[in-house]
Amino acid sequence: MAYTTAQIGQLFPNIMEIKDAALREKVAAVWNEALSLGCGGSGWTFDEIRAIPFTLLAGKIDLRFVEHINSCCKQCIAISAVLGEVFGARVPVHIDYLIAGSLLADVGKMLEFDKNAAGGVIKGHYGDLLRHPFSGVALCFKHGVPVEVMHIVATHSHEGDKVDRTIESWIFHHADFIDFDIAKVLGKQAAATEARDAKDAKDAKDAKDTNDARATKDSGEPKDFKDSKDFKDFKDSKESKEYRA
Predict the structure, then answer these.
(1) CB within 8 Å of 125: residues ≥ 6 apart
(2) Over the stretch 226-238, which tens digit does the pLDDT of each residue have?
(3) How far is the C-alpha of 34 from the C-alpha of 55, rounded, in Å?
(4) Is residue 54 in some structural domain?
(5) In this structure, what CATH number is given to the domain that contains residue 127?
(6) pTM
(7) Residue 147 lies in domain
(8) Chain centre distance of CA 159
(9) CB 169 within 8 A of CB 177
């Protein structure tokens, strides 16, 4: 299925803030192809992409991939506005390139991700061999995305640590890792809560088993023959006395 720019805008509303109409269309075209080719070639639906976790590296967190992209884009726009307000033209930011780069930086994850037999999202074979900055740049190049935007895609993660990032790339890089570092904190908190809940459940079960054992003992139920009424009756009987004699 081919998605229009307006439809891609349903996922990423800030795409409509790209003033250059040609660039806006190219960003939408890249996303259209990534959605069609991803998931091992079967493609992703809008509902599926909305359900993908933000990251597979932070444990059980309630943050989504689409939310992360929109968060980073909005952070970039806000940072650009602050820089412009405080520094003016002394810190030049190409806002169209910044918005486009923020929306395309993770587009390669559509190829990097796949589904397992149970329908869970995993890093697929494609992702094992080629990280999303590389596949993202390849998709962007195919659709004629400007090199300044491809630079953001290429350098937004650790791959960019040994090159000179542009201002736009630095802005996105930090916005991206704000989300990722927060996700790691939330993941650790979730793991700690899960471990604590599991311990509480085990402690509750152990306490119940102990209380049940005590209740059984306190009820007077015989534990063996010597504690039974039959044994006491036998002990007091004539046969017992004769036996002991």
Answers:
(1) 114
(2) 555 555 565 566 5
(3) 18
(4) yes
(5) 1.10.3210
(6) 0.80
(7) 5-194
(8) 21
(9) no
